[in-house]
Amino acid sequence: MNLKELAKFLNLSQTTVSRALNGYPEVNERTRQRVMQAVQATGYRPNRAAQRLATGKAGSIGVIMPTAPGRDTDLHFAEFLSGLGEVCLSEDMLLVVTPSRPENEEMTFRKLAAGGTVDAIFLAYIRRNDTRIDLLKSLSLPFVVHGRTLEEDPDFPLLDIDNLGAFRDAARLLLQLGHRRIALLNGPDYLTFAIARRMGLEAALAEAGMATDPALFQHSGMTDENGYRGMMRLLDSAEPPTAVLCSSILLALGAVRAMNQRGLALGTDISLIAHDDVFPYLKPEHFSTPLTTTRSPIRAAGARIGERLIGAIAGGGEEPLQEVWPVDLIVRASTGPAPAETKRVRRKAG
């Protein structure tokens, strides 16, 4: 069904139907509801090119997907896009995912803005001294950032979680349990979420009058393999940790594999707290020893950013400039009192 046929079906003019579909205020609410009910009943979908000519809107949100040879698939990003995509689908918005080399992202943003193919842009994985944010401020498109810079008072629209507070609380729990050598398997050290999580651990140690030991920290991509290799290195050290914080449940998966290989009992010989409690395909309660976690609803964050972007495109009511969500600490069996002496089981040859 095209617009002409839909208008005939409703006994309305094409102009009225078009304005109802595109949110023009001069269309009364009763007529708008009637049009929307007919859209659902008939399966009508607007012609995007005609809609763009009529409204000046492309009806789409732009997302850049960093890609490069050897770059690991980012399951966190995929989970975020699921939430964003659900909102776009419910609001009949397109999600335009554009691949780009990381070093070319600013040029890609410029192309998206100049091409008129998107009405708003989303930015993730904020870096230290991130120049992309100043670029987005200079473009004539609404945008929302998932994450924060390290400055105290950011002046751009964002949604983030309290990364520092989450890892400070997790470290405090371990300190209360008597742990004094706490390791950190973290994300890349140039990303601000990873910097904030390290700062959270360091803040808890400072409160306890303890210095940090850089030898206990690893920054890497958040994969099972990096978790395994990092945990093996820590267990082989002269003074292995009695507890470890993992910035992702994927890192925790590899760390637990290393502990099992060394014959260590999780929660007894060594404690572990992981971030991410909401992956539908990797649930912390389903590990052989259920994992203590800091819970962050990444799919819900994607949905919320979708709502904010669509609201900005429509010129809706005022949204808060910054949203920072608290993070829950979910205690399960992977944390326990610090052992008197950690077992060391060397890797078997071959």
Short description:
The chain has 350 residues and is of the alpha/beta class.
Topology, pairings included?
Elements: H1 3-10, H2 14-21, H3 29-42, H4 48-55, E1 60-66, H5 75-90, E2 94-100, H6 105-115, E3 120-124, H7 131-138, E4 143-146, E5 158-161, H8 163-176, E6 182-186, H9 192-207, E7 217-219, H10 224-235, E8 243-246, H11 249-261, E9 271-275, E10 292-295, H12 298-314, E11 322-325, E12 328-330
Parallel strand pairs: 1-2, 1-3, 3-4, 4-5, 5-11, 6-7, 6-8, 8-9, 9-10
Antiparallel strand pairs: 10-12
Helix pairs in contact: 1-2, 5-12, 6-7, 8-9, 10-11
How many distinct helices? Answer: 12
Distance between the termini: 66 Å
Secondary structure tally: strands: 12
Mean pLDDT: 89
**Rg, Å, rounded:** 24 Å
Which term fits the overall shape? Answer: elongated
Provide key terms for this protein:
about 350 residues; 12 helices; 6-stranded mixed sheet; 6-stranded parallel sheet
Describe, in plain words, how this protein is organized in 3D.
The chain has 350 residues and is of the alpha/beta class. 41% of the residues lie in helices and 16% in strands. It contains twelve helices and twelve strands. The protein has helices at residues 3-10, 14-21, 29-42, 48-55, 75-90, 105-115, 131-138, 163-176, 192-207, 224-235, 249-261, 298-314; strands at 60-66, 94-100, 120-124, 143-146, 158-161, 182-186, 217-219, 243-246, 271-275, 292-295, 322-325, 328-330. It has a six-stranded parallel sheet with strand order 2-1-3-4-5-11, with helices on both faces. Strands 7-6-8-9-10-12 form a six-stranded mixed sheet, with helices on both faces. Residues 342-350 have low confidence and may be disordered.
